[in-house]
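Hi V.,

Quick status before I head out on leave. The structure for the redesign project is tokenized and pasted below; the design run finished overnight.
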């Protein structure tokens, strides 16, 4: 498992790094994507590939892109759909005003108690 100064990096964080690099690669910040991909590979911060015996192997960014053809560069933006589902369960204070950057009832990361996940 990859690790940082904070300890082991969870799979979801590795996948998020990949999605960010994928998103940046198709936009105006493609050079930032190149730098990010270089660091992800250098520090082994990409999801590992499992072989038929369950052994984990490092993968390159290009291998991940190739093996995840269903993940388009804008895949990260589909996460906004989560907001619509969350609004049904935990309505925001002001309808249609939500953000990843706000706190409390307007945050896309809110819980029923009004705290961030």
């Amino acid at each position: 498992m990859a690790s940082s100064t904070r300890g082991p990096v969870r799979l979801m964080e590795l996948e998020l790094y990949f999605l960010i690099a994928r998103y940046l690669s198709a936009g105006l910040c493609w050079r930032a994507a190149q730098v990010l991909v270089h660091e992800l590979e250098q520090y082994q911060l990409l999801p590992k590939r499992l072989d038929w015996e369950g052994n984990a192997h490092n993968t390159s960014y290009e291998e991940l892109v190739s093996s995840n053809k269903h993940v388009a560069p804008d895949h990260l933006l589909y996460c906004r759909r989560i907001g619509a589902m969350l609004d049904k369960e935990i309505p925001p204070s002001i309808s249609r005003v939500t953000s990843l950057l706000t706190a409390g009832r307007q945050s896309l990361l809110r819980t029923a108690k009004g705290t961030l996940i």
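Above is the designed sequence. The mean pLDDT is 82.

G. will cover questions while I'm gone.

Best,
W.
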